[in-house]
Amino acid sequence: MSTEQQQIEATIAADARRVLEPIEVPSPLADLWEELREVMAALDRGTWFSATLDLVRADGSAAFSYNHDERIRFDRLIPELDPADMDLTSPLDESWADELRRHPRSPAYVPAWLRELVGGEAVARGSGQDGRGTTPEPDVHRTTRTVLPKQEQIEATIAAEARRLLEQREWTTARFTVARVGGEGTSVGRCTRPDGSLEAIRLRMPFRDLWEELREVMNEPDRGTWFSATLDLDRADGSAAFSYNHDERIWFDRLIPDLDPADLHLTVPLDESWADELRRHPRSPEYVPAWLRALVGSEAAGSEPEDGAAVERAIGVAPTWPPSRAGLASSARWSAVFDAVSEEIVRALRAETPATELLRREADDRALEQVAETATNALLTRFVEDESACAALAAELGSSNGPEGAEDDVTDAITDLVDWQLARRFER
Known about the structure:
Elements: H1 3-16, H2 27-39, E1 50-56, E2 61-67, H3 93-102, H4 112-118, H5 120-126, E3 140-143, H6 149-165, E4 173-181, E5 184-192, E6 198-201, H7 205-217, E7 228-234, E8 239-245, H8 271-280, H9 290-301, H10 309-316, H11 332-350, H12 354-359, H13 365-383, H14 387-395, H15 406-425
Parallel strand pairs: 3-8
Antiparallel strand pairs: 1-2, 4-5, 4-7, 5-6, 7-8
Helix pairs in contact: 1-2, 3-5, 6-7, 8-9, 11-13, 11-15, 13-15, 14-15
């Protein structure tokens, strides 16, 4: 952070404390933001699209955050305010091309959505590639702070694996999004078919593990690492664009809003997980967003005593077969899976995690989903990743999907067992 940027931020914070109502920002204050935006413009990376200042009267703090990559809509900047109280408009598509002319970005720093919106020519003009020297566009584009060789290697591997997942599908574009907060996480994938319809993509553990490795490689001292990351693939031009969210709060069930939530296995991160995230990936105060500081503080102040009675009762419940899978009880192989399900659920319930901490106070659906995910992931590693074991289990399911559907069939059956047992233990 430059000294000039710090000085302008301090002036804005001082002036903003005198303007705390939903009214038009005075011109002098607006001019300061414009000056700050120009000061922060970086060669080949452009500058931010939106910036936020959060003030807390109680502790006198002022926290700035900047969005360099996500598309903005002016009428959604402050959702809790009535749009009628503000003079807001949505940026015209042409304005994005103008933005690239004013603040050029090299192709590596142009998000996929912006490239699609303005077209390749506008991107080339914005990056200065209009005959005054050409730079080949890399196979993998990214929008991040510091790029390390190891990061580039993992990104390339992820992009290659993502394309492999799409080999048997008809698709034009695809998006893979991974989110992680403390010990909780989820991943979703989807592709757009030539007819415009969407298809959900099941992401297996080896693919998710690559993202986890990437997240740890990108962890920075005092800055932590990203909360969510996205890979956008475009079949027509072969591009792969990575983008990372380090500061915005995430909700797992909103990662891909245009997909039916029923098609995905998504959960919402528990509030306690954000404190766990800061323990795992520490951040110095200037890199902790105001919303996160408020959330972690309020949670610590509002924690309740834990008696653990509900969890202990759940552990003591005798497991049963779900009616839809009762026919498998006579199978020795599936009986072994059934016993393993019980063992993994009990292990997950005894673990010290934000989910079990909450379950000791109440049978919260989100916490139960996290316990189910933990148990299921361990079971999939044991019974699905071993191809021979998976094939033997699938053969006893009587599915019409054939050998190529073995993974999905066994995964669905194990998920049914976990969900049923956990629901019975907590009388859901």
